[in-house]
Design brief:
Blueprint lengths: L2 H6 L2 H6 L22 E9 L18 E7 L6 E3 L5 H5 L10 H17 L8 E4 L7 H6 L4 E4 L3 H9 L4 E2 L5 H9 L6 E5 L8 H11 L5 E7 L1 H6 L12 E2 L2 H9 L3 E9 L5 E8 L9 H12 L5 H5 L1 H21 L4 E4 L3 H10 L9 E2 L17 E2 L2 H6 L3 E4 L5 H7 L9 E4 L5 E3 L1
Parallel strand pairs: 4-5, 4-7, 5-6, 7-8, 12-13, 12-15, 13-14, 15-16
Antiparallel strand pairs: 1-2, 2-3, 3-9, 8-11, 10-11, 16-17
The structure holds zinc ion.
Length: 435
């Protein structure tokens, strides 16, 4: 694909080439540096909100679809969606309960042990989590008798946290809330946020809020999917309306630096297909020296081209090829009369199914461990969601694993499908069958 030219195309040329006009649109600016956005990363077409599971009485109603089109800033390389949907609409009744994944709970427990030891946390400390969900993580600090505060905008999941003894404020985080909490003496020694940074529409307000709230000498950790992995491994289904931003380490470093926060360490994690855990401190706090991991990752991202616009422009073609390979596999299976069902109903599955056009013609149903989703339907594709036991009853030839980042855990749980010759299909990084 010739990338430089598509980037540089003038408005006049665009209007003569149908199909390329949609790659540009006027008016939008980078949510970090405010430069005009003009470079296409990938256009996944129109898609419904991926957490809007439908109840049975909603399937005959109209359903809103929004563009799922990611741009990358030519100045700071922040990959981003426009804010098509107001976050209040997405997050106030959230269907995602973190505690339904065993591996995510283990990951969180391990994190609390690590932080307690490394930063000497105890009864004198405060740990604050942004987007604390159902208390899946803070509960382990509570067990250690370390004071905690959760901040979670979705009232239904926050209630679950409070019920299990995790103090939780139902609020959106930003400068305003940070000032209030700081004024009331609630400045944390450890301020964390897992998979929240991507979901923040006003990124600068959020990061400035963290600067205000963090205790002098305190530490921030944030986990987010790593853009390097997303691009190297075709993880385009981790793009959805709830994720406004997609970060490399290089770009994250700039965003934090702009608010007086320095990244002094980084870890690469296997979660969500490959995430970063960044460690930040106040720029003026010289007690924590940058680790070698910071230099090493910065160098690796530069070597991978993440500071050059042509690397970004090359991504879309690999997404299209991933779709073609997956559809090829599905079409062959259906021609042979095979029964294919899904496992999982994660947000990423909805991006994948809508982009690929996979509906009940290809996938009879899917299952999920979260009872909130049982009896509901996937947005857009209207594939029904059942409890996991339905797989045993249906004896499918193939189980299509939508949360591919948990494929080992799921293949282990469902190893019984081999009793009737069942196999697994995993879509990403490319469609593969596992016997
Ligand atoms: Zn920018």
């Amino acid at each position: 694909m010739s990338n430089e030219t598509s980037v540089m195309t003038s408005k006049e040329t665009q209007s003569k080439e149908p199909g390329t006009t949609a790659r540009k649109r006027g008016g939008s600016n980078c949510r970090f540096c405010a430069a005009p956005l003009s470079v296409n990363l990938v256009d996944l077409g129109m898609s419904p909100l991926c957490e809007s599971y439908l109840a049975a009485d909603q399937v005959n109603a109209m359903e809103p679809f929004y563009p799922l089109h990611v741009f990358v800033c030519g100045q700071c390389f922040l990959a981003q969606l426009e804010e098509y949907v107001q976050p209040e609409h997405i997050f106030s009744e959230y269907a995602y309960f973190s505690s339904y994944s065993d591996s995510w709970l283990r990951h969180s427990k391990k994190y609390t042990d690590l932080m307690t030891q490394r930063f000497g946390l105890g009864a004198h400390s405060l740990v604050t989590e942004l987007a604390s969900n159902d208390g899946y993580l803070l509960q382990y600090f509570v067990e250690k008798r370390i004071p905690v505060l959760g901040i979670e905008p979705a009232a239904n999941v926050a209630k679950v946290a409070v019920d299990k003894g995790v103090p939780t404020l139902v609020e959106f985080f930003g400068v305003d809330l940070a000032r209030k909490l700081a004024a009331s003496g609630q400045r944390p020694d450890l301020l964390l946020g897992n998979n929240v940074l991507a979901q923040v529409p006003d990124l600068n307000d959020f990061v400035e809020g963290m600067k205000i709230l963090l205790k002098p000498g305190g530490v921030i950790t944030m986990e987010f999917p790593h853009l390097l992995r997303l691009m190297d491994e075709n993880q385009f289904d981790t793009i959805y309306h709830e994720h406004f931003s997609y970060f490399s380490f290089l770009t994250a470093e700039r965003i934090f630096a702009a608010q007086g926060l320095t990244l002094f360490d980084v870890e690469e994690l296997s979660t969500h297909g490959g995430s970063l855990r960044i460690y930040a401190r106040h720029a003026e706090d010289v007690t924590k020296s940058p680790t070698l991991a910071v230099d090493e990752l910065r160098q690796r991202e530069e070597n991978a081209g993440l500071n050059r616009i042509d690397r970004y422009a090359a991504f879309e073609e690999s997404v299209k090829e991933t779709k073609r390979k997956l559809l090829d596999l599905f079409i062959r299976a259906k021609r042979e009369g095979k029964k294919v069902v899904g496992y999982g109903a994660p947000g990423k599955g909805n991006t994948l199914l809508n982009y690929c056009g996979i509906r009940t013609d290809m996938l009879d149903f899917t299952v999920d461990r979260n009872p909130y989703k049982h009896g509901r339907f996937l947005p857009g594709t209207h594939i029904p969601i059942f409890p996991p036991e339905q797989i045993r009853a249906a004896k499918p030839d193939y189980v299509f694993i939508l949360p591919w980042n948990l494929k080992e855990e799921i293949m282990e749980q469902l190893s019984y499908i081999r009793d009737w010759g069942g196999k697994f299909i995993v879509p990403i990084p490319e469609a593969m069958v596992y016997e």
